[in-house]
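Blackboard transcription, Thursday session:
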Amino acid sequence: AQSVSQHNHHVILSEAASLELGCNYSYGGTVNLFWYVQYPGQHLQLLLKYFSGDPLVKGIKGFEAEFIKSKFSFNLRKPSVQWSDTAEYFCAVNSGTYKYIFGTGTRLKVLA
Amino acid sequence: EAGVAQSPRYKIIEKRQSVAFWCNPISGHATLYWYQQILGQGPKLLIQFQNNGVVDDSQLPKDRFSAERLKGVDSTLKIQPAKLEDSAVYLCASSFRRDTDTQYFGPGTRLTVL
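(Written on the board underneath:)
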């Protein structure tokens, strides 16, 4: 069965620290990859997505993610986090059958 | 642009009762999704509509859950009868198309089954 793994469930960083959140998926075929974010009290919203082309994609608020096909990974990065990045981050994958699978999420807390 | 609307925002019911959730997607969005998000887990897709047809309902517990999207716009998700393990947030999302398109999520309905 297809699955998405997010290895870090809780991450605490100080402002200006660099961030990398891991995401691995199990499906071997063509996939579309997404990172969604849920800020406190807000709806889930898209950070960035990849479906073809340059494997390094840039999203909103300075986030980027790199698709490494050989590693089945789509890790999220930000060089310098801010207090306002405190949120829960979800990696999601959909395959050629259009079925969306979300990871369990990573709660990020950034200390001011 | 108005976002995805859901109601009610909160619902508390006893087990074995029935409950219904309503979703109004963003105007013009052909694809509508219902997700179940249990505390501490990621959203789990229950059913996906393309206009008023079902694209995927493989994870919908059909013995107790049902959903419809009449006229390809609003959608209703029903649980009958509810079980304790149905306590979760039910999220509705919509997108212009499926596959690569961004999903826009509503605020969710938090269901507590006692």
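Lecturer's comment: The radius of gyration of chain B is 13 Å.
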